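Hi U.,

Before I forget, here's the chain from the pilot set. I'm dumping it here mostly so it's searchable later in email.
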Amino acid sequence: MHTPITISPILAFRDNYIWALHNSTHAVVVDPGDASPVLAFLAQHHLILCAILITHHHHDHTGGINDLTQQFPVAVYGPALENIPGITCPVIDNQTLQIDPVGLGFTVIDVPGHTSGHVAYHTSGHLFCGDTLFGCGCGRLFEGTPAQMYHSLQRLAQLPPETQVYSAHEYTLNNIAFALSVEPDNPTLIQRVRKDRDRITHHQPTLPSTLGLELATNPFLRCDRPSLVRHAAQSAGHTSLTPEAVFAVLRRQKDEFR
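Structure:
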């Protein structure tokens, strides 16, 4: 019988979270952009690295692979549709992974948009979504289209509302500021800003959130809501917009938001 799993954030760079899933002996890490804090975490907790999961090719998510695998020659899972040095096990949509030392199975979900081959990993009520879904936001469209990102987010939105959402960056307060600018009367959003500001004040992560909270507050998951449809239609100069078109307007506005 496996011991319980703990999920810990490892801080990297300015605002990255490298997520570590670990029991008393072994750990899996997600998106290790920097090996140094991961190695320090493993040493501090007397853990053996048993696998690496990669969501997409950006260096702040992959930069630590080589140094980690030099010390721990483990399987490195990552999207088959992206060319990422160090990946030993390319993964595709709906593939299942079993990582026995931590007793976890993961399902791969294709979520293109931020990059063309971005994937997420879902396991027992926990979603590791890289730069696709953020606390109250979503990733920039560096390679994909608004339509791709909209449909990727819709896939994630189908998961149970109690699913815990582990994004790869601490962007929540900036995202909430934008969300309030487009949906100022959302009472759940108003409550969220107070709670998340308090977390940051006390040097605590705002993540994980839950998918239910994101559905109630994240404008990019609420593109069918009348208030956001009206906001986007007014901005775009159209009387009616599809949810996908609303998403495109909101994503463009967020790119310009300061």
